[in-house]
Design a protein that fits this description.
2 helices; flat; 84 residues
């Protein structure tokens, strides 16, 4: 039994669609412009994207490393089962 989550999600989507304001047919949008209005590719934005991607990759790698660590490895990093 999946529980009430799918029904709740469907209800929330239905309410969102039902109460989304729509423009009347007589109101027209502003004409489209071809001139640039700005850019989101400045040096700060690129540095932020690189930093966020690096942080996410590092967190994922550390999580995978801790989750799938071999249990037969000794704490010093060598394989167990050798001659003493």
């Amino acid at each position: 039994m999946p529980g009430p989550a799918p029904r709740l999600a469907a209800l929330l989507w239905a309410l969102l669609i039902a109460f989304t304001p729509t423009a009347p047919a007589s109101a027209s949008a502003a004409p489209a412009r071809a001139s640039p209005v700005g850019t989101a590719d400045g040096p700060g934005d690129i540095a932020l994207a690189i930093g966020v991607t690096t942080a996410a990759a590092t967190a994922t790698g550390l999580w995978l490393r801790s989750r799938y660590r071999r249990s037969d490895a000794d704490p010093d990093g060598t394989e167990g089962g050798g001659d003493p």
